[in-house]
Design goal:
By secondary structure, this protein is mainly β. The protein is 13% helix and 33% strand.
Length: 399
Amino acid sequence: MIRPQAVVIGGERAVMWTDADGTVRAARDLCPHRRAPLSAGTVVDGDLRCPYHGWTYDGSGRCTLVPALGGDGRVPGRAQLEMLPVPPPDRLTVARPVDGGDDRRRALPTLGFIDGDTPGLAGFWHPVARLGELPPTDEDRLDVELLGETWRVEQDTDGWSATSPFGMPAWGVVPHLDHLWLAPCRPVAPLPEVAEWGRACWHHRRLPRVEGRYGVGLLLDNQLDAGHLPFVHTETFASPAGESVDPPEMTRAGTTVRASTRVPIAARNDPRATAGEHALVRYEFHAPLWLRLQLDDEDAGDSTVILFSLTPLAAGRARMDVDLLLRHPDGFTDAQLDDRVAFEERVIGEDLRLQRCFEDLRLPLDPAAEVHTQADRLSLQVRQLLRELLSTGDPGTLA
């Protein structure tokens, strides 16, 4: 496997590779599709392949392949790399790994973006702590980070309350779905509901918490997207037959977007799985940053519900709690449940490996900021809803 090189050209992070003619090429280290770092990708027959969705670029920077579109798909004309001059070897600086900060952010289009200090997010419920995380003291209080501030959360005989560093009370704090949820201002979207929660036939397990230098919107967008599965999840369930993505069927009601599609998988933890087997995947997004993902094995009667609770801590910092709800007609042994949890941990680990390579951690909401295809319909619908909510506080109506 040939890897491109991450370098610095003119003070900007760039990617450098040798094309099919043996010519050294350089481009801005950013895929125009989802702004992933191309230096984390590979070089295939002299073409540069993005690690996120497999978009492939020739020596001129022109995109020649979008796997999610299939063999007959038309590559968008805007799918072109920003090429850079290759400096002499004695003036070439190897780029350091991304280690924090977004020093060289470029301006994003005016319709905004999602980050951990986006002011408009104050008008929503956010999961700020797991129930049971309160310290064992008589005061029953906890400091939580949210939207660049530290909130003091307390419990007394009247229930829960929270206060900002400036002494301002939060609109509300409630326990729900194993979390404490905090709304700094009057929320414009209700709390999500999960019908399976607490039912005896469903087994609940938690995954280890993810917290640190992550983009909260990028973490969400990653889970909304089926096009990355063959390229990111190569060690767990990727199927070569899964590169072509069928656009999902979608509905939108208020602040919720639902979608369903079939995705070819070959789960390494399932001895029955074969390459190309299609699993039904259902998405249920609740604004602003909560996602339910359900995978159904209709032959075995097996269902997995994955709940992603995302919290915007501060600019360039996010938390993600993941809950699993598992059901099988024959039930599970403890060993089987442990195996399922360990497998999902590996899946999440593959996602995070790439997410840690991003330099700019913001999720742009303006469709002009990136290049899209029909495989991105769910992501675009979610972004449209977020644009409406953050700009007007009104989810509008389904077009």
